[in-house]
Structures are given as C-alpha cells and as structure tokens.
Design brief:
Layout: H1 20-36, E1 81-84, H2 93-96, H3 98-103, E2 107-109, H4 114-119, H5 140-151, E3 156-160, E4 171-175, H6 181-188, E5 199-200, E6 203-204, E7 209-210, H7 214-223, H8 228-236, E8 239-244, H9 251-274
Parallel strand pairs: 1-2, 1-3, 3-8, 4-7
Antiparallel strand pairs: 4-8, 5-6
The protein binds zinc ion (ZN).
Residues 87-88, 91, 161 line the site of zinc ion (ZN).
Amino acid sequence: MNSDKANPSEPPRLRGGYTFNSAGTFLIALITALCVLTACNGPTRHPAEGGPVPENKPAPEKPKEPEKPKEPEKPKWTKRVVITTGVHGNEPSGYLVQEQLKELGFCVFGPCNPWGIKHNKRELEDGRDLNRFFQDDTIPQVKAVHDFLKANPPDLLLDLHEDPTKPTGPYLIQNGPKDKLAEEIIAALTEYEWAKEPAWGPVKGKDGIIKPTATVLAWQKYANVFSLGAYAYFTFNVTTITVEVPGDWPEDKRKQYQLKVCQKARDIFEARQKK
Ligand SMILES: [Zn+2]
C-alpha cells in the first residue's frame, strides 16, 4: 500500500501546510457573511441589483498567508421586501410575474395555492378560501408560507391579488394604519386611475386605499380570521399591502401593474432608509 496516501479520516492537506479545514472554514465564513446580506434565503438578489456575485474561482493551491476576510459588499438595500403570489388561484397576474420579480431582487414566495393556480380556482381543493386561514398552520399551504416567512422575515410584505368583481380601478389594502406607504405609491403611479371608493367587505376605502383601522385589525385578531397580509402584519409587526388589480384588465396590463407597484413600493421604502 502507498504510505503517502492521505488518511481518509484526516482533512486533505494542501501544500504549504494549510489544511483544507482552515481554508474551507475561511471560505465558509466568507460565503456565510455574503449570504446573510442577500435578500432571501433561497432566491437571492440579482448581482446587477447589488447582490453578491457568485465566485467560481478555485481556492488558491499555495496560499502564502491566510487571506484577510474581504469586507462584504454593502447591499443596495438592507431591508427585505417579501412578495407573495397566487393565494387565489384565479388571480394569476402576480404568479405570472414572480420570476421577473425574483430577477429584480425581490424575495418571492408563490404560488401559495398551487392547486388553485393549476385549476384557475380561487379556493383550495377542499373549497376553503386560503386567505381566511393564515392563522391555521395545520393547512399545508399555510404552513409553507409560515415557514418561508420565518426563514425570510419581511420588513415589508406585498401580497399580489386581482379583484374579479370589476372595480373601477386598482387599489391597495394596507395593514399598518399609520404608515403612508400606500398613499405614496398611489401618488407616484399617476398613470393609473385608482378606484375612488374601494371596499373590502364592510371596510370602505377612498382614493385607491383601504386601510383597516386599529379597531378593525383588533377585531380581526379577536375573530381569528387572518388574511396573509394580516398574519404577516401581526406576526412580524410590519406594514403589509394586499395589491389589487381589476381582474378584467388585459393580462399584460395586470402584469405590468403588479411589477410597477412592487418596484415603486420598494423604491419608496428604500428611500426612507437613506433619510
Ligand atoms: Zn385575491
């Protein structure tokens, strides 16, 4: 037997006296530091948007001395904007742009209701409306969303929907009564004629915005009926917006709207952090 053969129980030894373990540990530490700064544990921020550039370089074979850790690149944004799609399977425009949203660096989960998307149905296969049960993680589709959000805690959450009841225009339902984010998005997207008097059940809105008051939110909590937006609002204490677009708009127009609202929301959210 060749006595020079490496003992498989020992880490492979690099020439120059450095073990794979020490070089490996350093690389793992560097990669971990970069990962922490990405948008999402899973889909990562696009390099073009300031995310980390993947390195394929092999480790140097003969390091003269251990490299000093590089300062990780400061990400363009430090807060995580999470987008969810396809809670209602017959409202597909958010789901249809989710790959584009990932490429734009958003942290995206969807479709939340894959069966509904496949069959163009609002409800789950058992007939329940998923968006009334986000408190109940015995429902696998709910648990999947909970798990994703716990792994990627949002600083802002946008849940993309459509309104099939032919509203007069698009609108936003915002949980986070004091935040002016919805107003700022609407003021910035002047190309849309926002619904003048949108309504979400008994909760009435105005000029494109429905903003449940603290009382309505408290009632929702008491009744234990949670939309995804309400669940994320209560669990992570962040502003959440349910983005609604008229379901009778042409598909391209609906998709463009979803993309524009997400990008504008992030622009405004990011600009706040620089102040
Ligand atoms: Zn919906």
